[in-house]
Amino acid sequence: MEIYLKNIRVVNPYQNMDSNYHILVRNGIIDYIGDEPIEVSTNAKIINGEGLVCAPGLFDMHVHFRDPGQTYKEDLRSGIQAAANGGFTGVLVMPNTVPPIDNTQVVEYVKSKIDNSIVDVFISAGITKGLEGKSITSMYSLANAGVVMFTDDGNSVLNSEIMRRAFDYAKQFDYLLAQHCEDYHLSQGFSANDGFVATKLGLKGYPSIAEEIVLSRDLMLAEYCGNCRYHAQHLSTKGSVKLIKQAKEKGLRVSCEVTPHHIVLNEKYVQTYDTNYKMNPPLRSEDDVEALIEALKEDVIDCIATDHAPHSSHEKDVEFEKAPNGVVGLETALGVCLTYLYHSGHLSLNKLIEKMSINPRKILGIPQIIFKKGEIANMSIFSLDDEWVVDKQYFKSKSKNTPFDGFKLKGKPRYIINKNQFFASSL
Fold this sequence. Notes:
This protein is of the alpha/beta class. About 30% of the residues lie in helices and about 25% in strands.
């Protein structure tokens, strides 16, 4: 397979690269990259790069593909298709499957389903067995099987002694522990952010302190156990931002992520009782949204991850309080971030690509993508200025529970190239 990218803007912050180039990809390898156009064979697929950007493949380090166990919502194949359609060439799947990814047998099952897929699928496993928070998993054997991060995502490890044991063990091998920060004693039964909107609607609130208490404890444990690697998942409050900033200033080895929906939407959207605005953590206040955006600008927040959480329509089409938490995000993330972060002037294009490609790989210890002759071609190609309206019927995901259906966006995914395969987005 030959693909010729003709006069395309190439942006790779890892290489301090931002200029127009001509690129020839032959059999999955970059055969030529340079300022001057070249002659290519008649069999080559030629892409006119005018108005397009070629970036190192986007990476989402927080997705739920529901496989094994809940494949009516999503499976590994449909999840991979959704990722590709959204412009991603790499993802990290969460372990809260049925059964959970807490042993090597389930890891091998996942690996058997992703062989030779155009999207690189990396695997996280539970910190604790069954994601129950009672005893830690066999991290060493799981890491040897290919696991790159440990988390009970979907659950929070509330027992401080168990979390300390996990840090003590992880420190020996420099494993990365990640946490869904939530004190269920404060948030149990919630439907919305604790505040005026929840009170007005008569909904049980989730106070911001429920996130911040667990985050604060984990940061103290990470330091106490020897400055362990720690990643805070889908942060949502200005208090959490403050805690992460203080930890980084102390030199702790911490990182964190934010979702596109938490930097665009706020608790007011819940007033429609549309269950596609129900997620965990919940949509927060306008002040929280502003703090999250500022934290992205200041590099307090390292990366953007979707927390892609598919649910079927029959599960979401119920009363607000009874609906499961979670929204899909892979197929809207790039458009949403270009619209509300790049075009709004909050982040430069280089900075946005850092948050969506470079930093996730850095956090996980995955090799960075290099654009030069002889390197494997791993590329996300997108338009900066194409305007489009989100229509969930064009999603490749099995589930359509998006909060952005009908949103008008500027900038969209076009193609990905990875592992000698090519994919054109249908959005």
